[in-house]
Amino acid sequence: MLPIPFEITKISKDNAKTRTLLLAGQLPTRPSPGQFVMAWLPGIGEKPIGVAGLAPLRLTIAKVGPFSSAVHQLKKGDFIWLRGPFGKGFKIKGKPAILIAGGYGIAPLTFLAEEMKKRKIKFTLIAGAKTKNELPPKKIPATVFCTNDGSSGAKGFATDLLEKLLSKSAVSCVYGCGPEAMLVKLAEICGKRKIPFQISLDRYMKCGIGICGSCAINGFLACKDGPVFDEKQVAKMPDFGKTKLDESGRRVRA
Asked: What is the pLDDT at residue 208?
């Protein structure tokens, strides 16, 4: 699949580190929440980016490195090239759910929340960050906020809030996206309560189509078997929360 140019129609500043690009047009096939695209800037590089929403097509990108820094320099009327969508997204169940996002993990869960709202599925979205300057805009429905330093919302980790909510009501599934340490804790909490969960696992991706193997984890490829995995698949991943491959193929701490 060759990259397709998309014109940027609007750029919104979500917080101190993230921008959301609104794009003209749609992808060749309709993405589902949790799927990703490979975003390319000529002369800069290509990176996997989770789809943040449709109508219009949206990408939320945090400034963390050379590629994302270049994206943050783009303006309305500029172009970004995309190929995809790729991977397997979240499987939406028809009963109340909890969505939990840590930091930049809010993007695919915003998309998931929109789909659940359309299907009239009850949910609570936990949005956590280190400080209030890193929280997403407070316009997503059914959202509760928390910060590590207590500067906005509840004080503590997103998983602390998850435990409190699970102690008060039953849910059919917990959906998570964020730092791997948070996802490990999520899996532990859900495992103790025997609650199904689905998590979006971040791994280094070069191709997005299962050729390079850079996103491999214990026999799974995050770009094709994931990036969303359920509790049964995670149970078969001894490297989850421990190690991953970096851009050179070396095994490093997750």
From this structure: 94
